Structure formats: structure tokens, C-alpha cells
């Protein structure tokens, strides 16, 4: 909890004593307070002082969700010079989602310090990335494949890098990225400091540490015990294109929906809030970039129920303490079990049973089952409500509300008008007309569009990104043939091929995905394309619009 005292009495900041003891500066402490941090996690307490006071490399064993991004991100910000022409820190992550998440979180710590931070990953326009890099970027957060691509194009300069971070190194190993990582490390001055973080420490990870790091210290933390007992947990299987429609149905099923909805990124939060508002809901957004004043204003509005929907990122949700939430909804599946438990723990407080809902796409089933296993909980499958069910529930609510008004006799001022109408009309027809007049839009089934059937591969599938598209002359049959020629995977096992202007997507089993990734990212021979794990929902807006026009 917050300690008593002040950092600056004029500004009335609370003293984060335990963070202060780690050696952090006042500007950083102010940013931590704004973000709702209370006290450091175990990994932060162990790592931050070492990075601030000692010149030694670090191998950190910690689960995702233990606060390790802040553990390495905050000291890096503390020690980097103000914005320069050269890249000062490089952070490698296994996935684009994590690259975005880490970039946003580190950016939220910098405060007024002029540092440029850029996520770099496949699926984005490489031309746009090159332009940003040429303008000068202090901290790059990227996936190995795309970083290596920039190195080969000479569009990235790593000569002045002071810090290299390998985040979730075990995942990079599992995804076949280690060769790329090692190639990248060879391009960076040996004078750098290297930080490696991994949930597990197999021999292969330790070999990388010994090969590419100077004197290093191994820091480990205790495993987090996860529980989510006081929450009724439900998941819905839905295609990405139907996710928003499914959310609207869930909201409309509840008489008094009062919920917190999680997305992975700030961009996704803004997009969802705008769509909800366009649909007529009272929704607000909260994320790390908001000023303290904006954050407080948004939270106050939500707490007083002047808005009933709050959409947030994991980072921004720190410090949010709102009682009596009816729902916590994972619009996007979190990256790790810890984040899942932290999210849903915001409902079901004070002994009350809350409801947590998670939407998963066909390729996310296996990941959800992993979360369920690690969190030692039960997440049951439900069917998305039918439109007819929603309309019937609304009709029942209106009937109950009318009966309540009659019982409370709060309608008497309208009796005279009612008698006048009754003189010439049938009572049942009058009542039906009033209901139509007042609630016709509420009962309009055309407000809801159909939701397609979902076929979930229980064995697990992986969506892959391929750096070739229509402008490269790519077609579905040609792409399948290219994959087949490179890996010998039969065409019948390559599904849901989608060709866009600059890149493509396809879906294969987990096992086939590993074969494809290893083959295309081996660094051996001349490969025709970059292939990475991908999330189809992350395709750039401009490409999505182009696809819709066609």
C-alpha cells in the first residue's frame, strides 16, 4: 500500500517509500504514482538496484506478469541520455503483441523525459518503420525477424546500443528465433549490458547467456500462486470479425451491466470505445497516456455510474478499485495466466460472485486451456445468446418495470390523459402502441447481425504471417505451393489463406507451424519470405479497408 509522507508537498504526491529506497528519481516516482503503483514486486526489488548501481549483466528467472517490464524498463529510462540520433536500447520479444505491450508500458514510465520509443514487428509497413528509424529512436522494442530484416537493409544502427534485453527468451527458443537472436547480438557492441528474462531456465538458455553475456548474475523469483475462486468464469468461441457483435449481446442481456473490458493495446481500446459509443453505449477509455486529471475524471464518472462501461489496458487498470462490478470481460485474451487472474479478480469482491467472460478465436483455445491449468480454475464454455433471447428478456424487463410503476403509484399524473385515450380505443391496443412508441428500437432484431459458426481446433492451431502479398504477385495457390516446396507440408493441411496487398496470413496446426517457422527462419539458404506467428485481427486498418472495398 502507499506509505505516508510526500515526495513533493506542493504537489501532494504520496511517498512510495519502498520504490524510493530502490534508488529511483523523483520524476519516475511521480509516474509510478500516476499509474497506481503501490510497492515493488519481488523481481523489481531485486533487479532495479543492480541495474542502477552495478555494471553487470543479468539473467532473470521470472514468470510473465511479475512486473519484469518495469524491472528493466524503469532503470533503462533512468540511465539513458535524452533523445539522441542513435538507438540506445534494444528489447527483443517473441511476439508482436508483446512488443506493443512492452513499448506502451515503457513509454508510460518516461514522463517528460524526451525519449523516442518504437515497436518494430512484422505486419507493419516496413517503409513507415524505416522513416521513423531514420528520424531517431532511443528504444526499439521488436521481434527478432523484423529487427534482423532492418539490419540486413541497413535501416537500423545498433552501434551505440547500451542495453539489450531478451524478454521471454524461452518463448523465443520455442518459436525458433534463437538463431536470429544470436545473429542480432553479434551486430551489437560487446560493451553493451545484456539482460535476459525467461520463465524457465533450460540448458539452451544458459548456453546463450554464457556465450553472449559478460559476467552475469542469476536472479530468480518465487512462482506466483494464482486463484480466482470468487468469479464465475465463462468463455465464448467466436470469430474475430464477430467479437464486437458478441460483446453487444452480452451487454444487452444484463439489466444493469456495469463492467470493465480489457484490450491488449491503447489502439484497440480506442477502437472498441468508439464502436460502443456509435452503438449507443456509455463507454469510456482508460490507458497509460492519459493525464492524471483525465484518469481521475474518467474513473469518477465510472464510479458514479454516469458511464457503465470502462475499457482499459492491463497497464492502465493498475490502481483501479471499483466495487460491485457485474462483469469483467476479456475482449482480447491476455498474454499470460497472471494477467488473466489479475483482470478477473476485479469482480467477485467482498464475497460476491462476479462474472468473468473471455472471448477466444478458433486459434486461441489451447492458450485458454493453458491459462485454466496454470490458474487452477475452471472456465466453462457457453453459447452466445440468440437475438430472440435478448429481445424476450428486454420485453420481460419492460413488463416488470411497468408493474413496478403501478405498484408504486408513480404514474397518477398521467391517469387523466390515459382516460381520454381509452374513450375511443381498446386498452390492449393502446398499451401495445405505447410500448411500440417507446421501445420499438429496443425490440428491433435487425440491430443485431448474425454471428457465424466457429470451428475450434481442440488440438490447437497457429495463425502465421507471411511477408508477401498481392503486390508481390502472391495468390493462395502460389503461397500454399511455396510452403509445400519449403517444408513438404501437404496443401490440405494449410487453411484459411488470406492474401492482402503487402502480406498474407494462413492457418496450420501447432506442429506444422513449428516446422514452417523453423524452416523459413533458419537463416540457411535464400528464403523468399519472412514468416512469423501472427494475429489476423492485427492487420493494418488501411489493408482491412482495401479488402472490404474489393
Structure, described:
Helix 3 runs parallel beside helix 4 and helix 7 runs parallel beside helix 9. Helices cover 41% and strands 15% of the residues. The chain is α/β, with parallel strands linked by helices and 550 residues long. The N terminus and C terminus are likely disordered. Strand 3, helix 6 and strand 4 form a beta-alpha-beta unit. The termini are far apart. The protein is globular and about 95 Å long. It folds into four domains: 200 residues, 3-Layer(aba) Sandwich (Rossmann fold); 154 residues, 3-Layer(aba) Sandwich (Rossmann fold), CATH 3.40.50; 60 residues, no CATH class; 89 residues, Alpha-Beta Plaits (2-Layer Sandwich), CATH 3.30.70. A seven-stranded parallel beta sheet has the order 3-4-2-5-6-1-7, with helices on both faces.
Features:
550 residues; alpha/beta; Rossmann fold; 4 domains; 7-stranded parallel beta sheet; 21 helices; 41% helix; 15% strand; disordered N terminus
Fold-level CATH name of the largest domain: Rossmann fold
Total number of β-strand segments? 18
> Approximately what portion of the residues adopt beta-strand conformation?
15-25%
Oligomer: single chain
Low-confidence stretches: 1-14, 536-550
Number of helices: 21
What does the main sheet amount to?
7 strands, parallel
Percent in helix: 40-55%
User: What is the CA–CA distance across the termini?
Assistant: 55 Å
Amino acid at each position: 500500500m502507499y506509505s505516508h509522507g510526500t515526495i513533493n508537498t506542493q504537489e501532494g504526491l504520496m511517498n512510495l517509500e519502498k520504490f524510493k529506497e530502490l534508488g529511483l528519481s523523483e520524476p519516475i516516482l511521480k509516474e509510478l504514482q500516476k499509474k497506481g503503483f503501490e510497492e515493488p514486486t519481488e523481481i523489481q526489488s531485486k533487479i532495479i538496484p543492480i541495474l542502477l548501481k552495478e555494471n553487470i549483466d543479468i539473467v532473470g528467472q521470472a514468470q510473465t506478469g511479475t512486473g519484469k517490464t518495469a524491472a528493466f524498463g524503469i532503470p533503462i529510462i533512468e540511465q539513458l541520455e535524452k533523445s539522441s540520433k542513435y538507438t540506445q536500447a534494444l528489447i527483443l520479444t517473441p511476439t508482436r503483441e508483446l512488443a506493443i505491450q512492452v513499448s506502451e508500458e515503457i513509454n508510460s514510465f518516461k514522463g517528460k523525459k524526451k525519449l523516442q520509443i518504437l515497436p518494430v514487428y512484422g505486419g507493419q509497413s516496413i517503409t513507415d518503420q524505416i522513416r521513423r528509424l531514420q528520424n531517431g529512436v532511443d528504444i526499439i522494442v521488436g521481434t527478432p525477424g523484423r529487427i534482423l530484416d532492418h539490419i540486413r537493409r541497413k535501416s537500423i544502427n545498433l552501434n551505440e546500443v547500451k542495453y539489450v534485453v531478451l524478454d521471454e527468451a524461452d518463448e523465443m527458443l520455442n518459436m525458433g528465433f534463437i538463431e536470429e537472436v544470436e545473429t542480432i547480438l553479434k551486430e551489437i557492441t560487446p560493451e553493451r549490458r545484456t539482460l535476459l528474462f525467461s520463465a524457465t531456465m533450460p540448458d539452451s538458455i544458459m548456453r546463450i547467456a554464457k556465450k553472449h553475456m559478460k559476467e552475469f548474475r542469476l536472479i530468480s523469483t518465487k512462482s506466483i500462486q494464482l486463484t480466482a475462486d470468487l468469479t464465475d468464469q465463462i468463455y465464448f468461441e467466436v470469430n474475430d470479425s464477430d467479437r464486437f457483435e458478441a460483446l453487444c449481446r452480452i451487454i444487452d442481456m444484463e439489466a444493469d451491466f456495469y463492467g470493465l473490458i480489457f484490450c491488449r493495446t491503447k489502439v484497440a481500446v480506442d477502437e472498441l470505445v468508439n464502436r460502443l459509443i456509435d452503438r449507443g453505449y456509455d463507454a469510456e477509455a482508460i490507458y497509460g497516456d492519459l493525464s492524471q486529471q483525465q484518469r481521475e475524471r474518467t474513473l469518477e464518472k465510472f464510479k458514479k455510474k454516469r458511464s457503465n462501461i470502462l475499457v482499459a489496458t492491463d497497464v492502465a487498470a493498475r490502481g483501479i478499485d471499483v466495487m460491485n462490478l457485474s462483469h469483467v470481460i476479456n475482449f482480447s485474451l491476455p498474454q499470460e495466466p497472471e494477467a488473466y487472474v489479475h483482470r478477473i479478480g476485479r469482480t467477485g469482491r467482498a464475497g460476491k460472485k462476479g462474472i468473468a467472460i473471455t472471448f477466444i478465436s478458433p486459434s486461441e483455445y489451447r492458450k485458454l486451456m493453458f491459462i485454466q491449468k496454470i490458474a487452477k480454475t475452471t472456465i466453462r464454455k457457453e453459447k452466445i445468446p440468440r437475438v430472440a433471447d435478448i429481445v424476450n428478456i428486454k420485453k420481460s424487463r419492460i413488463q416488470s418495470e411497468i408493474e413496478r410503476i403501478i405498484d408504486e403509484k408513480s404514474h397518477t399524473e398521467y391517469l387523466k390523459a390515459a382516460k381520454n385515450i381509452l374513450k375511443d380505443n381498446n386498452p390492449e391496443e393502446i398499451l401495445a402502441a405505447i410500448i411500440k412508441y417507446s421501445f420499438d428500437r429496443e425490440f428491433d432484431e435487425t440491430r443485431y447481425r448474425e454471428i457465424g459458426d466457429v470451428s475450434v481446433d481442440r488440438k490447437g492451431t497457429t495463425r502465421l504471417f507471411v511477408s508477401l502479398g498481392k503486390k508481390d504477385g502472391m495468390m493462395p495457390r502460389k503461397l500454399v505451393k511455396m510452403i509445400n516446396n519449403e517444408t513438404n507440408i501437404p496443401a490440405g493441411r494449410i487453411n484459411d489463406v488470406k492474401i492482402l496487398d503487402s502480406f498474407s496470413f494462413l492457418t496450420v496446426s501447432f506442429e506444422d507451424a513449428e516446422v514452417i517457422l523453423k524452416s523459413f527462419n533458419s537463416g540457411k539458404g535464400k528464403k523468399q519470405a519472412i514468416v512469423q506467428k501472427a494475429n489476423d485481427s492485427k492487420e493494418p486498418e488501411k489493408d482491412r479497408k482495401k479488402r472490404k472495398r474489393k
